[in-house]
Protein 1
Amino acid sequence: MIFKDITDTNFKGIDISSHHEFDHEKVYYYEDQESQLKSLIAIHSSVEGPAIGGCRYKQYSSFQEGLNDVLRLSKGMTDKNNVASIPFGGGKAVIFKQGIKSKNLLKSFASFLNLLNGTYISAEDIGITIEDIIFIRKHTEHVFDNVDPGPFTAKGLFYSIEQAIQTYYSESLEGKKIAIQGAGSVGKRLAEYLACSGADVFISDIDGSKLSEFKNHNIYCVDDAFSIECDLFSPCAVGAIFTNDSINDLKCQIIAGGANNQLLDSSIAENLHEKGIVYIPDILINSGGVIGLTKDLLKRNDAETEQALRDIANRVKYLMIQSQERSISISKFLHSQN
Ligand code: NAD
């Protein structure tokens, strides 16, 4: 077993603290040959409290790719918690997918969490399910197993999209065309909320089996939601989908989605603004999941949790109006406030 604080080291040929995404308190590496676990945990900030964030189980082409992901995602968690006034720091874990996701591997990940003594508390992310977290909880206290965050994220997104349409078009969702990429934990529920409010929803997923469960007649399954002509596009699958090339294929007025780190780099927010597309940053609208996860620790009852989800939409409205009045992107306005 290898457990290493790699923060100020040169590890696998990379000077960690010189990495272009590095702005972190700690980066840890753990490897266990028997279970085949190779994992990184990045603690971006613990100023507001223990670092929280999901664990991603993904096939990375290199150590560097996994490191990029964990550094960027953990910083995003700090920003997200700050924007939503959640009194926790930002962190993230990645597990390098190699063989199968065995019980041994998950148990080994629990040992990694135990070594950090609660300075990082994990939840699920892409590739890790609530069932995995419930299993990991048998071996460590340092996970959130109280709720599936997906439905909370979807609800916060739904309120935000409703508010964005109201602010931009002065209309309700009735008859509005919304395209969603990804029909997983977040995208599926978001589609249902929107369709129940009268929107026409066009949804795609690379896994066709995810598209077979829809019963609402306002939901249409499509090959790729990305380039559909619509009022609002909601990316709810993977990150880095907006590049200088790909944004030329967009045919939407507003972007508001749950996927983390949607922009390949931050300058793309300005390019979208110049194209006349309103981009609502993911850290602003996908905090419903952390609101759900932390509700018990923060002793929030159902009404307070619901209000916290509605507050995401109230911030969206405020920031959309501020950005419209100043003719600047929401991202730029948001940064000017921090
Ligand atoms: P998920 O794994 O349940 O679903 C993602 C879906 O996207 C899968 O069905 C997958 O097949 C599909 N997909 C992958 N690539 C695609 C592509 N190119 N086109 C279409 N579909 C594609 O994940 P989730 O929990 O629904 O999360 C979705 C996104 O939101 C992720 O980026 C995640 O990091 C982010 N996010 C999730 C939460 C949460 O509470 N679950 C909170 C904040 C952010």
Protein 2
Amino acid sequence: MSKPFYITTPIYYVNDVPHIGTAYTTVAADVLARYRRLRGEEVFFLTGTDEHGQKVADTAESKGFSPQQWADQTVTAFIDAWRELDVSNDDFIRTTEDRHTVAVQTFLRKLHDQGDIYLGHYEGWYCVGCEDYYLEDALAEGRTCPVHGRVVEWLSQDNYFFRLSAYAERLIEHYETHPDFVRPEERRNEMLSFIRGGLNDFSISRTSFTWGIPLPWDPQHVTYVWFEALINYLTAVGFGADPERFARIWPAEYHFVGKDILRFHSVTWPAMLMAAGLELPGCIQAHGWLLVGGEKMSKSKANQIHPRTLVEDFGVDAYRYYFLRELSFGQDGSFSYEGMVNRYNADLANDYGNLASRVTNMVERYCDGVLPAGEAGGEAEDVLAGVLAEAVAGIDREMGELAYDRALGALWSLVRATNRYVEDQAPWALAKRQETARLHTVLYSASEALRAIAVLVSPWMPRTSARLWEMLGMAEPLEAQRLPEAAAWGRCVPGQRVSKGEPLFPRMEVTK
Ligand code: MSP
């Protein structure tokens, strides 16, 4: 059996609720998962929630709940948000599930037995927001955390340590032999020089609170939340429970992570896997932050936006489209409501929506809603078919680079070329002059281009594609379409019933 394409998002802390930042990672991963399925690949797409640790325990306490009650309530906010965004994850992992305890304890036991985990003492400045220690000179003014701005606390405790330092050489070698292990490249270089600077062993257990997975050999200690959370990627594919399944699915092709959590994923995690004798993931892909008013969203700054508020105004598909079209995946980018309205009107209402309305309208009007047959060999039609072939190749190339914005750019050259084709061929004039054969060829070709667009854009905008598919009266189900065959020219069947539906993207005015 072949190996599925395995892709993950970070698991999100349940001390917070979903917002457009966490949705950004999740939707990006979803589009890739859908794109790979469209190419006929088996995909395993994982997301979930990170439910242990001091931060979650503190939040629960401040709200008057037990950590488990709190996690049980908050997790539904994530499940609902992803469902509302049509996220097609194959599994949703919660770190408080038994399967995760089994996997984590299996992992810990192995490392402990072979001497990669030992008891030691650690003191240092700790930020609960990051669940991480800081060196004195990495702190911001007033001994505050550079990320959260809150005052750090001095922690001094007996902890178990993971022998991270022992893996520096092997990590460097892996980076050197796998240039795409961490992307984008500037982040890879940062991580590599961090490793070259020398690695310290790091503490993987806590005794100051109990909300976590106990170490199997010393249950006074709970596992450090990061060490435990990373293992979710193994748990979900059967580590410690189903060796056959694990062997089939692991390693992940991609871990998608925000740049804020890259170090854990590209230094700690691969070292943990090396210690456990497991294969490393193909690529740790870091992406930038989504900024609102120039700042990263956070609970403390109260600048978080729930995806639902935008979905209510723009619809799910436009939401999914906008962030991946507007931002370049590896870089930071800003959200603005006006920017979203402008892009919606230009790309979706004008370019795409109008094209769909116009073409289906004309088939209804001039051909009683029955798709006519076209004649092959026309020059303009060959050009359009050529643009389609280029778009298919362009999308595939750009998706290989995770350049979502450029992939959509390649697709929009087809949308625009089809609009130009309709404009240049002027079917309304052909109808007037009763040039029926030519009129039929133009309407068939424009419908055919629309059909291909519906397939190609479906990873981003599945609902709209389903509607357009229905308007075009396609007999084969949309879900059964596979690239590249589905993008080959000429799959609309003359005689199929075309109907003009409601506009796909009604124009919007800036009201907010
Ligand atoms: N629980 C850890 C991750 C453990 S993974 C083994 C965590 N959780 S988090 O809830 O804080 O979410 C972190 C991730 O959410 C970021 O790495 C990023 O993927 C995403 N984002 C959170 N805010 C974001 C933005 N403002 N912009 C883009 N992505 C953002 O860290």
